[in-house]
Amino acid sequence: MTILRRALLQGIAFGLAATTVGLWLQMIGFMQRRMGASVPLMLQTSALEILLAVILALVAAPLLRMRGGRVWHLVALALCWIGLERWVSLDSPLFDQMDLAVPVVATLLSLLGLWLARRWPRLPWALGALLWLGALAAPALYLRFTTPEERALGALPPARADAPDVVLVVLDTVRAGNVSAYGYGRPTAPALDALAREGALFLDATSPSTWSLPSHASLFTGRYPSSHGAHGEHRFLDDR
Length: 240
Description:
Blueprint: H1 3-33, H2 39-59, H3 69-88, H4 93-99, H5 101-117, H6 123-146, H7 190-198, H8 212-221, H9 225-228
Helix pairs in contact: 1-2, 1-3, 1-5, 1-6, 3-5
């Protein structure tokens, strides 16, 4: 096996381990917010991280000529990974500490894979693929088993004969100060401008909360967050 081939395989293994660890760590935030998981985005992220690991592995390939070169090669990959995360990091120092878990755990998993490959060459790749696929499926499975069953629309009572047709359009995180109907200099929302000219424009509307989930629950129920209970700890309205 040539040095470049060893570097390529070790880079793929490290990248697969790193992206798998990162995906499982993201489950913590997903379980808190119940939002943000996208399989296409996860696939794209995995591909880019594996590509990055391969590039770093090829650059560090000369280390494989040393005694114990595979170990030193993995250590070099981890150090480069940490350096790049520090260079491009946009998170707070608290999350910077969590970033260390990805290269460290990826290095340990890669070393375990090298040890297993001595006796079962294909086993590390199979286990790595299973862990990665599990990370891709975990958000959907979590939602499947933790989301209350929705009330069937067919069970709802019919609308009154004289009930008006109402269309509710929500633009999340759009400031009134940036909408032309409210005095912004650029024509940012011509459709809203037309609606404002034809109907009623409310100049004083205050959100009952500082973020989206409880604000929308108040929008649909007419209650304050302290009443409807949909906030950071409770993400579903009860039967009341």
